[in-house]
Design goal:
404 residues; alpha+beta; OB fold (Dihydrolipoamide Acetyltransferase, E2P); 3 domains; 4-stranded mixed beta sheet
Length: 404
């Protein structure tokens, strides 16, 4: 039994995850290559390897003839009878080939065949391993900056985080561990090329799936997601169990679950709202924390007209239109937001029939926004509490006086 070969195959199978059958095939091909280099051709050469003992036999099939014209393919009757006394003219005889007789060049070529096969299989194993993780989140270690791109080690392979997939304002140091979303895995002659992202909306979705048990087991579903990387994300969730609150499950006790995701995203704010099959209610939830007076949604045209109190207009629109923009992406509707004063002056904009009851509105969960240090509007005109209720402190001098 060839113990050394068996131990070497066991180590390769364990460390590089290359099957023994593949390695046996590589050894067989290498011996045939060595015979071809040694004899000039190897069409009649066969190699047999015992998978259990690793003992191998290399032989050539030769025809027994009276006069030998090609010593690679033929053998004389006299020589054949030395191997087998039963040999006769016209028989095909198996003549053993001693691999120890191979020259240095033939041996080196055989070695290269085995090494090449091992490298190919290793690349194939790594490619298949990460191809299965495509569209998923993995943890990597920042290695170095390559120009404006970042090289990230994922364990057995390196990934590239292109500049276009980086969040503005995020700066990573070498050896720092970060989570990335695998966009694409390509198979190249030099090994798998893996492209990852920190800006993709699916990154947030996968983080919630890993953090929230109810999402993983299907009790809570993420129905829609809209993201502006580095700034804010809105997600709409619904529960398939009437006893489970979808928003509460995503938030966790004292915001523990959502805060861990906020930390991973370097402080990016996350709005979690309830999904509703009614477009009007969904748009109302999506525009939270702004209070809505009326919503008129046209499912055919995918447009919606929304009326908000005068003092809530800037809150509903958000800084540079961010709140309204994310709400539009979340719902798939083109949203036109007007204040009550603007709506009354606009011709044909009759919102009186679509006014929500204030008491009913307050009873509904219209979404909450969670961050580690509260919910603060960067513009400075509004301030948000952790309950998602907007309190306007300063709109203009007159409004401030009225509130006092």
């Amino acid at each position: 039994m060839n113990k050394e070969l068996m131990e070497a195959l066991d180590i390769l199978e364990k460390e590089k995850e290359i099957s023994k059958d593949t390695l046996f095939e590589a050894i067989e091909n290498s011996l045939i290559t060595a015979c071809k280099n040694h004899f000039g051709k190897a069409d009649n050469v066969k190699v047999e390897i015992d998978r259990d003992t690793c003992d191998f036999l290399c032989y050539a099939e030769k025809e027994v003839v009276e006069e030998v014209e090609d010593d690679v393919l033929q053998i004389s009757l006299e020589d054949a009878q030395k191997i087998s006394k039963m040999a006769q003219l016209g028989d095909m005889l198996h003549v053993e080939i001693k691999s120890k007789e191979f020259g240095r060049i033939a041996t080196q070529n055989a070695k290269n065949v085995i090494l090449q096969k091992i490298r190919e299989e290793e690349r194939s194993v790594i490619y298949n391993q990460y191809f299965e993780k495509e569209k998923d989140v993995v943890t990597g270690i920042v290695q170095r900056y390559v120009g404006r791109n970042i090289s990230i080690n994922l364990g057995k392979a390196d990934a590239i985080l292109n500049e276009s997939e980086q969040v503005k304002g995020e700066n990573f140091k070498p050896t720092e561990r970060i989570k990335v979303y695998i966009l694409e895995v390509k198979n190249t002659p030099k090994g798998p090329r893996i492209l990852v992202s920190r800006t993709h909306p699916e990154l947030v979705k996968r983080l919630f799936e890993s953090e929230v048990t109810e999402i993983k087991d299907g009790t809570v579903e993420i129905m829609s997601i809209a993201r502006e990387a580095g700034s804010r994300t809105k997600i709409a969730v619904r529960s398939n169990n009437p006893n489970v609150d979808a928003v509460g499950a995503c938030v966790g006790i004292n915001g523990a679950r959502v805060n861990s995701i906020v930390d991973e995203l370097c402080g990016e704010k996350i709005d979690i709202v309830n999904w509703d099959e009614n477009p009007g209610n969904l748009i109302q939830n999506a525009l939270s924390p702004a209070k809505i007076v009326a919503v008129f949604a046209d499912p055919d045209e995918k447009t919606a007209k929304v009326v908000v109190p005068d003092y809530q207009l800037s809150l509903a629109i958000g800084k540079e239109g961010q709140n309204a923009r994310l709400a539009a992406r979340l719902t798939g509707y083109k949203i036109d937001i007007k204040s009550e004063t603007q709506a009354k002056d606009a011709p044909g904009f009759r919102y009186e029939d679509y006014i929500y009851d204030d008491e009913e509105y307050e009873e509904e969960a219209y979404g909450e926004e969670y961050a580690q240090e509260g919910y603060e509007e960067e513009a400075g005109s509004e301030e948000y509490t952790e309950d998602g209720v907007a309190e306007t402190y300063e709109e203009d001098a007159e409004t401030a006086q009225e509130q006092e």
